[in-house]
User: Fold this.
Amino acid sequence: MNAPQSTQTLAALFDLPADDRYAYFIEASVRQGKVWTLAGTGGFVAFRDEDGRDCFPFWPSPELAEALANDDWSDCKAESLDLDVFMDRWLKGMARDDRLVSVFSAPDGTSIVMDPLELLQELQEARG
Assistant:
């Protein structure tokens, strides 16, 4: 189990540009073998992009996910997903259902929003 991240470390990670947060997400997810999302009484969180497509956010640690558990998501807790399950079931299923992935969303609303199969390919390449 990883040690909890300090508030200062979380703030520094959220301050990184979205591209750098994306690279961190890939590296940390492969190293840990997990990703995190938020889930509440209504299920897993999602939001709609400007084109009305569902976007599901994922983070590289529970602390980073729970930092966004406020407002509409205040009842949510971080939930881990095994990386193999995330890659084989979630990303492929999201692609089939025409949904997008939001990678490492920050409190300011920035993230990398992408096709799930692109993320799948990046994770597969990072694993070697």
Q: What stands out?
A: The chain has one domain: 16-127. Residues 51 and 121 are 24 Å apart (CA to CA).
